[in-house]
Amino acid sequence: MSGRKPILLGLLALVIIALAGAGFLAAGNVWEKSAADAVGRNEIAANGNVQGELYTGDPRSEARIVKSEEERLVYVRTIASAARWRVDGLAGPYRLDTGSTNTLVLPARTEPYTTADLLGLAPDTFTQRAPSTFLLTENIVVLPGATLSLSGDDGVTVRMQSDEDAFVSIVALGGSLAMAGTEQSDVTVTSWDGSGADTDTSDGRAYVRAIGGHASFSYATVSSLGFWSGNTGGLALTGTDTPGTFQDAPAAADPVAPAGARLLPEADLQSLADQTELDYSVVTAGIDHLTVKDNAFGLFITNARDVAIRDTAITGSLVDGLVLHRSVTDATITGTTSSDNAVDGIAVGRSSARVELQGVTASGNGRNGLSLDGQPLADGPNAVGTAVVTYGSNRVVRSTVADNGRYGIELSGGDNLRVTGNTIRGNEVGIVVNYAAEGVSIIDNEIRDQRQQGIAVRETGARADIRGNTISGTDTGVYVRDASATVTGNTLSSISSHGVTLVGSVPDTRVTGNDVSGNGTIAIWDETSTGALVEENDLLDWHPAPTVQSVMNSVFQPLTFIWLLLGALLVATAFTRKRHLRVRTIRNPYEERIPLTALSAGIVRIDDLRDAR
Prior knowledge:
Layout: H1 5-36, H2 51-54, H3 59-86, E1 94-96, E2 103-106, H4 115-121, E3 126-130, E4 133-136, E5 139-142, E6 147-151, E7 156-161, E8 169-173, E9 176-180, E10 187-192, E11 207-211, E12 213-223, E13 234-238, H5 266-276, E14 283-293, E15 297-302, E16 304-310, E17 313-315, E18 322-324, E19 328-334, E20 337-339, E21 346-348, E22 353-358, E23 361-363, E24 370-373, E25 395-397, E26 400-402, E27 407-412, E28 415-420, E29 423-425, E30 429-434, E31 438-443, E32 446-448, E33 453-458, E34 463-467, E35 470-472, E36 476-481, E37 484-488, E38 491-495, E39 498-512, E40 515-518, E41 524-535, H6 548-555, H7 558-583, H8 606-612
Parallel strand pairs: 2-5, 4-7, 5-8, 6-9, 7-10, 8-11, 9-12, 10-12, 11-13, 12-14, 13-15, 14-16, 14-17, 15-18, 16-19, 17-20, 18-21, 19-22, 20-23, 21-24, 22-25, 23-26, 24-27, 25-28, 26-29, 27-30, 28-31, 29-32, 30-33, 31-34, 32-35, 33-36, 34-37, 35-38, 36-39, 37-39, 38-40, 39-41
Antiparallel strand pairs: 1-2, 3-4
Helix pairs in contact: 1-6, 1-7
């Protein structure tokens, strides 16, 4: 039994080593998968609904105020459409009682309305407080055919009442709105609570909005405006869903004769046709050298076309910086910066197309630098009959996207999207392609120092051409999961995990001709993927880093396993032998021997023998 103990102990040690190895291998696999899927664990809401936690206002009261504002504008529009036909002797501007503050209505005329006109039209509610500084304490509405121009060579400052008693707005209701300063002196529009800018949105806040018509801003500063919704978010350019909403109504027809309907004269029909040509369903805008600070939504645009924004800076918004919300087409944004906003720097919403972002900078935003959503507005039959189509043809060119809380650029759905020549650094992930976005070209970008991945293409239906990019200083260079991508001619360096990671079904994916260097686990990880072609990549400068996975894989080879077994047996045998020696007592080797004196009489002398005779 004692001879079998070393063998049993050796076998027990072997079993323990094997179980430990299996545990380490499993841990290594879990670590590998968790590292590859790290993006999925991002704690920022994928749909961007983080403003509920970040927004400092009162959702209930502000939502009610937004509804009240919409009702006020409908009332003004209705009265304005009928007043010219039904109020005798009505000519020029007039005022309507609209609750806590009146509304000054500016009807059509050839010459723009200026600050001098406002001083004459509203001496009690548009007052001069200092040279070129004015306080506005009632609402203004600009009707079709009219233009409100706030301009001056020495700059103009308009403070809009915004306190606990009331707030006011300037709304171009089909008319035009212009703010034009100079390179030396901006036109400034801000909220005013009596001592400074209003920072409390819970009771509403002053705002500026153009509904249809045209807006023009040059060398202007707009700050601390807006609350809760995009329409009332600060500076909003919004069209409408229905063409002709803000057309002046024609005179009422004569009552219907008992014998039947009256045939309208040709002159009346022509008059109606002429008015129909005036389409205020969309807004157009030209914006340059505009500064927007601390609005709810920095600059909000929806249902617009031919919008040009140049050399503009948007900062400190309570939600998003620049928002192209719905049906914004043929827009060009150049030289514009959107930074330090609570959610996204620039957001291009669904149904917007042919938008080009060139030379823009999006940095320090709470969620994404740039978000472009080209998904359909509906995915099947719906109440309003919305078409099931994707949107796209959007471009991001030669821009800088840096240090945002989640993604640098997110392309969610859509087609024919191009991201080229950009510098993207310091985000969680540089570029993300998801929600079945296809026809995506990601070319010649410099992507560095992302916290997780340089480029990620994921979810069924997403397709991207990733070519000629320089990606460095990130955990994973290119990550493709359950999607398709062509990854060719890219230079990936200083990678700490994988140059390219392929996970799941990646049909028609090609990873070829890339130069991959770094100190990660495996240069190209495709062990858990199917459908990809990986060939002819330069991996000479890839140096595998020792990890739990790699160490256990190298240790648990067949020959190594045999040596471990022999070593375990030797260790167990030596341990058992030493234990037996330690408990044994040292004995006298001669204690079982009998002295010769005990077997004989001992030494006998000769004299004694003689005497005995």
